[in-house]
Amino acid sequence: MVEANGFPYRVGDRVVREPQEVINQRKEAYRRVGYEQQVRLDATLEDLDLDLAGRFVKATAFGSRPIEAALHRYGLLLARSGGWGVTNAALLLFGKPPLARWHPRAGIRLFRVNGTERQHGVTRNVGQLGRIDLPVVSAIVEAHRLAREQIRHSEQLHDLFFRETPEYPEFAWQEAIVNAFAHRDYGVQGQEIEVWFYDDRMEIRSPGALIAPVTLEALRQREPVHASRNPLIVRLLADAGIMREEGEGIPRIFDEMEESFLKAPELGEEHGGFRVTLFNEPIFQGPSPEWKKLVRELPITTAQQRVLLARPTGFTNEDYRTLNHVNRDQAYREIQDMIAAGILSSAEAAGRGAVYRVASDLHQARAFLEARLPKLRQHFRTRPRLQNAEYREMFTLSRYAAVRELRRLVDEGFLRIEGERRGAHYVPQSGLILRGE
Predict the structure, then answer these.
(1) What is the residue range of 47's domain?
(2) Are residues 247 and 395 in the same domain?
């Protein structure tokens, strides 16, 4: 009954009045949350791939039971007189093809964009990598395979941290894809999950906004907030070890990106859907080839080299700890060792925010090489040799200053002198040539 002061709504043994829009929101939420639990009257066990279900459920606590009993324990099959009621969740997870019979867009599509923004028309730069219309448990595996083929390795991170590093941590992108399957709104049948690869980022988009009490702010703060739009699907995927439950997935994605020194993920709700964006840009700029060569020749540990490469203009004790995963005392000892070796200058001010900078002679060596080597590389791209006169003109130097600098570049392995007197000239050595040149 509609009354002027609101709609009656029963809560336990009480009747409360709520505005019409609130009642509508509740009805919509109940309809959507219950989609996976609805029984399809036109489906039978014959519509399920029970072999696939058996292989998957085997990894769970009910894996030793007959498959029908195991699916019943997970709420995927409901006991009915004379047989089983098959839920939407069971069909989504293990339905025989064609899956479109039960849901027109339960799958996932992957795209590659040539650039950082999508273009249309004659400048269209989008290519579809694949469309997967398989049961969810198979679609996740295939989506991971296709995505892995697109994950490149970052030269920049490799140069900075001395290890071959993929664009995105494996757990981060895999968990984002699994979460999309587990938490999407299957009541929305006009959209599927989409994965977009750009030059600078990877986007995973799924139909359906967040459900209470999960909020964007809570996820960004890495709070382990847990709520399932599809609790049947989530429980089975979690029991099989495919995904994290209890709200651990998103916080772990943030942690993995941070530990790989990549920018924090970006979360958003757009057009009734949810988006996770992973960036492949490091939070530190890669070192110049000149600085990298200098640092790698220093008689210090890899951890000490790492902080010099990541923070060439100066760093704090906290920077050292973050980069190398050490405690404050160990960071302090290793920084003091660098000061004693003349690699760092003592901090100008003591305390928690003290900044350590490279010693003046090392700073000057870096400035010299960064001022000279790029121009020399450009010269040798078009000419096989370099003469003293060309060097003098290139850097506006006297003959004596040019001879002194060229001798230094020879001693440090960047150039080699050939010939004598007026016929003397210089050719590049391995220290000058970059990979790919």
Answers:
(1) 34-101
(2) no
Does 29 map to a domain?
A: no
Looking at the structure, tell me whether residues 263 and 398 fall in a common domain: no
d(C-alpha 28, C-alpha 349), whole Å: 61
Give the pLDDT of residue 2. 47
By C-alpha distance, which of 303, 305, 300, 302 is closest to 322? 303
Same domain, 70 and 164: no
Residues 295 and 347 in one domain: yes
Write down the pLDDT at residue 117: 94
Nearest to 45, CA basis, from 78, 12, 8, 74: 78
Per the DSSP assignment, residues forming a β-bridge with 315 are: 356
What's the whole-model pTM score? 0.71
Asked if residue 43 belongs to a domain, the reply is yes
Q: How many whole angstroms separate alpha carbon 230 and alpha carbon 227? A: 9
Collect all residues with Cβ–Cβ distance below 8 Å to 431 and sequence separation of at least 6: 293, 412, 413, 414
Q: Please give the structure tokens belonging to residue 302.
A: 């890899």
Report the domain count for the chain: 4
Angle of CA points 189, 193, 195, to nearest 5°: 155
- In this structure, the answer to whether residues 97 and 132 fall within a common structural domain is no
User: What is the CA angle 435-282-117, rounded to 5?
Assistant: 90
**Residue 13 pLDDT:** 60
Residue 198 lies in a domain: yes
Pair type for strands 193-197 and 108-113: parallel
Asked whether residue 152 falls in the same domain as residue 225, the answer is yes
CB atoms within 10 A of CB 363: 14
Residue 222: HSE in the Cβ half-sphere, 13 Å Cα cutoff: 10
For residue 133, the SS3 value is coil
User: Is 167 within 8 Å of 202 (Cβ atoms)?
Assistant: yes
**Domain edge (last residue) among 339, 358, 377:** 358
Residues in the chain, pLDDT under 70:
1-14, 16-33, 154-164, 245-246, 434-437
Neighbouring-strand partners of residue 154: 165
